[in-house]
Each structure stands twice: as structure tokens, then as C-alpha cells.
Amino acid sequence: SQLVKQFDLDSELNDEDLIAQVLDCHGLGRVMFRNSRAQVKGFPSRIAVAHEIAQDSWHCRYEWLAQFLKSHKQEKILVICHAQEDILEAESYLWQKHGLDAALFHEGMNLVERDRAAAYFANLEDGAQVLLCSEIGSEGRNFQFSHNLVCLDLPSHPDILEQRIGRLDRIGQKCDVSIHIPFAKDSLAALQFDWFNRVLDCIAEQNPAAGVVHDEYW
Fold first, then answer.
1. Do 69 and 150 form a contact (C-beta atoms < 8 A)?
2. Lateral strand order in the sheet of 177-184
3. What's the pTM value of the predicted model, to 2 decimals?
4. How far is CA 111 from CA 107, 115, 120, in A?
């Protein structure tokens, strides 16, 4: 009834028609409402995959990653974590301990170097199996030829997590996107995973309200 009075709407209309009239009062609102993800075809499904590791340490994360890469040899794997130094350590560990080659993508590289790394990863015949990215890798680049995202850590905010997932979760992605998160039992990462996955439901689904709820209650 308040909407009817505020916008001078026909009180005899049903709820759906009332919403349509309100959206029309706000120009692009109707377009944005109609073109929500649920209405646009071509997006893949998303799958949240938890991996329990023995200890809450970067060494355990790197070792888990090495074994994950070995068990997915025929697949392209995008790995993102927040800090550049952790990415550099991961690259060194994979090569020195397991002889695994990885492409790097971080803010310490110039644009040409990043382009070369992205192209090396995108090469389906002779390219790198894995691209190790700092948080900068979650912005601007699209890698929908891969359908496995590994988050070696979880970001501090669901909007950043959505940016990470968005590198693979795009129109044109031909496979379901799996988001892999390794964490130790009872660790902060385990708590974050439960918060993002079960409470905010923003890993396997895109939840536009997740950021607002997170800011209010986390």
C-alpha cells in the first residue's frame, strides 16, 4: 500500500505488475532487473569443493596443490591467493620439490610480462598447466578455457571472492566451474569457508546481497 501511494500506482494491479511499474519509474532499473544472472542463459554451474589439509600452513597448502596438479594433469588450473610473496613461494616449491612448471601473474610484473604469462597459460598444447596469480589476477582477465579455480587462501570480503570466481564463471564457459579451497580443521580459513559457503551462499551461487550481509555481521 505504501508503494501504491508513493508512486501513484493502480491499487488493483497484482504484485508482479506493481513491481514492473515501480521499475519503470527508475529508468534502467527494469533492464537491470530483467537481465539478472537467473534470466541470462550461457552461465555455467558453480561447485564449491572443500579440501581438508593436515595443518594450517603454507607448506601444507603448497604440497596439497602439487598433488592436486598431478592428479589433474590434463586440466588447466587457475590459482589465486592474496599476496605476491605467497605466489612466488608456491612457484618455487612446485618447481624445486616436484619439478612442476607454473606461470606467474602478479603486480610485480609489467604489462608485457603479464600478457606473456597469460598467453603461456592459454596455450592448450605447450602452455603451463597452472597460472599462479596474486589478487591482481582476479581483476580484468578471463580464463574460461579453465574450469578449476584454486583459492589457496580466502579473501577478506565476498566481493573479492566473486571477482576471483568471475575469471572462470563467464558466458562461454563450457564446463561447470569448480572452486577448490584447501584448509585445516578449526582454522580461520575453515571458519571463512563456512561463512562464505553455508551462511552467505556466495561460492556455489552468485549472491548480490553477500557483501552487505558480510559488512553488517562478519
1. no
2. 46-53, 177-184, 148-151, 77-80, 130-133, 102-105
3. 0.80
4. 9, 6, 14
